[in-house]
Amino acid sequence: MKQSLGAKPIAYPTPVFLVGSYDADGRANMMNAAWGGICCSVPPCVMVAIREERHSYQAIIDRKAFTINIPSRELVVEADYFGIASGRNQDKLAVAGLTVERSELVDAPLLCAAPLVLECRLLSTQQLGSHSLFVGEICDVKVESSCLDRAGLPDARKIDPLVFAPGNSAYFALGDCVAQAFAAGKKLMP
Prior knowledge:
Shape: globular
Family: Belongs to the flavoredoxin family.
GO molecular function: FMN binding; oxidoreductase activity, acting on the CH-NH group of donors, NAD or NADP as acceptor
CATH architecture: Roll
Cofactor: FMN
Keywords: Flavoprotein
Protein name: NADH-FMN oxidoreductase RutF, flavin reductase (DIM6/NTAB) family
Helix content: 10-25%
Radius of gyration: 17 Å
C-alpha cells in the first residue's frame, strides 16, 4: 500500500547539474542544481530551475547563456560544495581546485573535470514560484573521448554521473544497465 507524503518536490532520480556561468565581473561560477532535465528534442533543449536569489540567476539572464556540466562520482565533494557555497562570496572554482575553459559557442564556462558538458543559449525564462525555469537550446554537447562507446556515443557507465535523491538529500551513482530502451518493451507488442 502506498503512503501519502503530500505535495513535495520528490522524483527519482534527479540529475546533478553543475550550471556554469560568468558573473557581472566576468568570474566563472558553478552552481549545483538538481531541478532540471531535457525538455525538447527539436531544437535540442535542456531546462533548469533556479531561485532568483542565487548568484547564477542574474548571470544567466545577463549573458543569455549557461553550461550544464555533468559531474562523475569522483566530483561528489566539489559538486556538493558548489551547491552549499555562494559564488557571490567566494571563488568556488579556486576553492575546489578546479579549472574551466571558455566556451567557443556561448558566453559561459565549461568545467574541465566534467566528463559531459552541454553548451546552452538561453531560449526562455519563466517564473514558476520559488524558482524560475531557464530553457536553454543546446548548441553543442562535449564529452571526454574516454567516455564514448564503440559507436561514438556517450556511455553512461564511463561518464559515471551523479544523481540526487531529494527525499533523503543523498547522492547516488548509476547502477547496472537493465534493458535496452525502445527494445525491451517489444516483448509485449502484439
